[in-house]
Amino acid sequence: MRRAIRMLVVGAGLLLVTASFVGCGSKDGKPAGPAGGGGAARIDLAKRHQTIFGFGCSSGWTSPTMDDSLADAFFTVDKGIGLSLLRMRIAPDGTSLELATARQAIARGASVWAAPWSPPAEWKDNRDVNNGGHLLREHRQDWADRLASFAKNAAAEGVPLIGLSAQNEPGYVTAWETCDWTPDSLAEFVRDYLGPTLMKQGLRVPIIAPETEGWNKFDDFAGALLADPAALGYVGPLATHSYKGSAHVPASVQTSGRQVWQTEYTDLRDATDTGMGSALNIAAHIHADLVHGNVSAWHHWQFVGASPYAYSGLAEGKDLTRRAWVIGNWSRFVRPGFVRVEATASPQPGVLVSAFCDSATGRLVIVLVNARDLDVRQTASIANGKLPTAFAVWTTSDTLALALSGRRPVPSDGTFTTTLPARSVTTLVSDLPGVEP
């Protein structure tokens, strides 16, 4: 924080990825039953967007170890929310305390990547790992060597990395571990130091960059990388956090065909709320990043919250918070390799809709957010593709934690009406012969 889909290995071993229905609405007032009668939502199976790489979380600072039951809850689809990505912290001395957790994630099918927050104090112009400062030019190669060695040592410890960040939040300066970079200086570090060093050490690990603090700085930092073919040749996914600015797709990124990853967000506004209030804020950010930012991967900040945001994590003790279960409404069912398809993003006030399909199995997954304080009724339709016969309904709400709450048949014309509980996130998973919901 401010503290396998198909992969194509090309050139220097860089990772490149080849690659409605349901919504809800309501009327104001207090109807006798569920609110409804608003605009129908439409899922267009023929219009496809980004390929999903996965959903993840960071083990930085707070999760050096994790008991098996909690690891199951985070990384498995049969017992938990099915996260498929883990983001580790690289300390200034080039080590990590999180290798045990990373091995647990890998054992459950997840992939691991790592990010640094600051070089060591003696290599910076402010002589401090905190409060920003800049990496001294005479130590750029030293820092590149240390990061590459981390990747090599992690692999030797049973943690092969699928990516290595150049810098966490490069344009952000604050009292904890930070290092300040400009867009051009970060691109230069990737081009002249980190990329070549990884290559010389035989490490086929793509660089994940720029990991800006928000969408507000993403265009400038990503633009500098995209404008430098030599630097870009070492880069895999382009990345940002989503603390600031609005999710969007810069024209240069869209033209490049690069995946975009959202690599950190937590709810700072309602950090002490472990219930649906904070969870719905998380859900709105996931929806915006997926639908408006076209991100292929989405990451929460920490598994376990730390001061001053002690409850902002995905677990409190051994119990998952509602924000964790809400992430699971996507991560458990929208698996790596799924493709987002066109859906009416907000068919009615308080309702958000996103939809995904798996070309291999034909599975269709629809995620609906109802932020209203009352149940809402929604008409939905599916177009331009094979219709499922029914959906399994999985719900997270004030009373349900990613629970199988029923089944919904789909008429032969693909249009039907369903009810979404108040303050809930509902996932509809198409029933298919021989495919578990």
In the predicted model, the low-confidence regions spanning at least 5 consecutive residues are 1-32
Number of strands: 21
Work out the helicity level: 10-25%
Number of helices: 9
The pLDDT mean sits at 91
- Give the H and E element order: EEEEHEHEHEHEHHEHEHEEEHEEEEEEEE
Biggest β-sheet: count, sense, barrel?
A: 9 strands, mixed
Strand fraction band? 25-35%
Structural class: alpha/beta
Supply Rg.
22 Å
How far is the first residue's CA from the last residue's CA? 34 Å
Which word captures the global form? globular
Largest sheet: spatial strand order: 19-18-21-16-15-14-3-17-20
Describe the structure.
- The protein is α/β, with parallel strands linked by helices.
- It has 9 helices and 21 strands.
- The strands form 4 sheets. The chain has a 9-stranded mixed sheet with strand order 19-18-21-16-15-14-3-17-20. It has an 8-stranded parallel beta barrel with strand order 4-5-6-7-8-9-10-11, surrounded by 6 helices. A two-stranded antiparallel ribbon has the order 1-2.
- A hairpin with a 2-residue loop joins strand 12 (315-316) and strand 13 (319-320).
- It is globular, with a radius of gyration of 22 Å.
- The two termini are 34 Å apart.
- 56% of the residues are buried.
- Mean pLDDT is 91; it is low at 1-32.
